[in-house]
Amino acid sequence: xxxxxxxxxxxxxxxxxxxxxxxxxxxxxxxxxxxxxxxxxxxxxxxxxxxxxxxxxxxxxxxxxxxxxxxxxxxxxxxxxxxxxxxxxxxxxxxxxxxxxxxxxxxxxxxxxxxxxxxxxxxxxxxxxxxxxxxxxxxxxxxxxxxxxxxxxxxxxxxxxxxxxxxxxxxxxxxxxxxxxxxxxxxxxxxxxxxxxxxxxxxxxxxxxxxxxxxxxxxxxxxxxxxxxxxxxxxxxxxxxxxxxxxxxxxxxxxxxxxxxxxxxxxxxxxxxxxxxxxxxxxxxxxxxxxxx
Amino acid sequence: xxxxxxxxxxxxxxxxxxxxxxxxxxxxxxxxxxxxxxxxxxxxxxxxxxxxxxxxxxxxxxxxxxxxxxxxxxxxxxxxxxxxxxxxxxxxxxxxxxxxxxxxxxxxxxxxxxxxxxxxxxxxxxxxxxxxxxxxxxxxxxxxxxxxxxxxxxxxxxxxxxxxxxxxxxxxxxxxxxxxxxxxxxxxxxxxxxxxxxxxxxxxxxxxxxxxxxxxxxxxxxxxxxxxxxxxxxxxxxxx
Lengths: 293, 240
Hints:
The structure holds 2 protein chains of 2 kinds. Chain A is α+β, with helices and mostly antiparallel strands.
């Protein structure tokens, strides 16, 4: 099972509603994935700054950390977003690793923030305040675990590169082999999860200069198994289904947005849905949208 | 040639069931408990909102109209009702239908008409992968195109495709006739083009008429089983 909800806005006037629309879609997908949920959201960024999304054990004192680093930090439940000058990223990462090993860096990017946790999707959304968030695009996931344990680490999205995230419905059969190959390419992995390997593969391709659509095309030849992927970059939104297309996918496109749902039910309350072009993404075909302005 | 019998439409207004205010279980229970001679012969279902298993398991010869997009298994196990979906249908529309008529005015998702034994399924738009998988006697008319692996392991019935067919059409086919007007991306194992006999053409013409499809039976190609896969052949003994 598992459920995927994605929303990529073309009309900027909808940006303040992005979080609320995404939260509603995730809640509908609870019966596809009640174990855990998560989302990546592409909000505002500041030139010259990078945002690190951090996760720590419940009792961790994020406020003290902000004071120690003298950096702006916004806490959201057991996650927090730290904003810092790009030039200091390596220094801050080193400092966190040395002084606060219990703090995990979940994601980084100019605009992307990423939150995930165990529990019902509606509870996870509420814990992180998704409803109040705004941005250009968001990708969320509700998980019914099959390949690895029900933990925050095993929840989706996975992020293996700056402003990059991936969610997955399905399971991969050659992930151990691909993980070994990517480790030889200096990619690092936090879990034994198959989806993280797919994310890592795309990050590796993007790192070597490929555009997201080209990276997804090469994934068709490399990744074996069944999958519907929805991926995000700082300005892009992509969808890929394996050639057998076992895992469901419905998309809606209007002048205002592109939306993805594992089932049509997740799209029902989007504005203007009755006029949207509804379609099922075809198997083994790369779909990709990008903001160019 | 038998005449198609139009579904009985009640002279009075249809019974309206709004899924926004009443639970789906009540709708299905009401429809499943209708006696064969019911006077409530017309039903209108509002606000399906993609719900699964809408109007399943009906045995009375009533007409049900679903006003909007339906989720998985809509009209499943239908046994005599005439069900119209004014929208798209999710996975497995009319799966295991025994008799009756199901009409999807939009597109259908995967596995439309799966394992169905009888009745007529009409899809005005496209059907995605595995349309008619394991069909056992149903007639399916798709006015658009179908996805890959359609009529996979089909056993009996007719699949009519006015548009194109995806990869591996009729893979591992037992019997069943497949008619395609457009292109076929590829044929599956043991599926082959066959000559269109007069009987095939008459059956196709009648199906097109019943489905309200404006197409000439002469513009279709007919596919079926080469019958080399499902019977033991001594030349293949070495493979076992």
